[in-house]
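S1.2 Input.
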Amino acid sequence: MTGFLGQLGQKLAERWLTLLVLPGALYLAAAACARALGQSHPVAVSRVSGQITAWSRSRPVATTAGQVLVLAGILAGAAAAGLAAQALGSAIERGVLAADWGQWPFPARKLAARRTASRRARWDAAHETYSDLYRAAGPAGATVTDEARDRRRAAWHRRTRIAAERPQRPTWSGDRINAAAVRLKRDRHLDLGTLWPHLWLTMPETTRTQITDARQDLTRATTLGGWAVLYAALTCWWWPAAVLAAVLATIARHRIRAATDTYATLLEAAARLHTGELAAVLGVSDTDSTGTESGDVVMSLLRPLPPPLAGD
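S1.3 Output.
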C-alpha cells in the first residue's frame, strides 16, 4: 500500500507539474516581459535582462528566505494561472459543444439560434445539391463517369464540412457529437443519453480507456483555448502577446475539432459494438442485436417509468 500511494503521489505531482506549473511558468514569463517592455519597447530584449538583473539584486531576493519566498510565489502564481486556464477551458468547452444552448442567457441564446439557422440553411442547400447529383447517377450499380463521381464526392465534402448531419447546434463540434446520437437513433432506435451510463458499466476496460483518453484530449484542447484567452489579456500592456494568443487559438481550434471527431466516433462505435452485450446482460434473447427491434426492447428496459399520477 505504501508503494502504491507513493507511485500515485508521484503521478499526481507529474500531472500537476505538466498541466499547471510549466504552462503557468511560461505565462508568468510572458507577463514579466509585458511588464518590463510595455507597448513602447515591445521587442527590446536588453530591457528584460536589465529588469531581471535589477530584481535579482534587490534586498529581499538576496537572502535565502527571500529566494524561497520568490520560488514559492512563482509556483503558486503558475498554478493559479493553470487553474484559470482550466476554468476558461471549461467555459470554452461548454460554448463549443453547445449541448444546452437553448438554456443560455438571452443574448447568447439569440445569437446561437441565428447561427444554427444559418448553418442549417447552408446544410440544406448542400444536401439538396448532393441529392440531385446522387439521383442523376441512376440506380445502384449503374455506370458513373469519373467526372460525375468527382462532382458527387465534392458535394458530399461541402455538406460534411458544415455538419455530418442536419445541424441542431451553432457549432461544428457540437453537431459532430450530436451526429452520433442522431445516427444511433435513426439506425438502431437507441437513445444515447439514456443508453450510455448502462453501456459504460458493461464495456471492456480497454474500450473505456480509449474513450476516456479521447475525452481528456478534448479537455486539453479546450484548456489550450483558455491559455489563448489569458495571453490575449496581456495585449493591453504588450502587443506581441496578441501573436502568441492567435497562434494558440489556431492550434486549439484544430485540436478541438480533431478531438471532438475522435471522441464522437468512439462513442458511436462503442454503442454499435457493445449494445448487444448490454442486451444479453438485460436478458434480451433476440439474436439480431443490430436490428431496430432489439434497440426498442433495450430502450424499453432502460427507460425509467414516470412517477405515478396524483391520487393513484
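S1.4 Remarks. Residues 85-302 form one domain.
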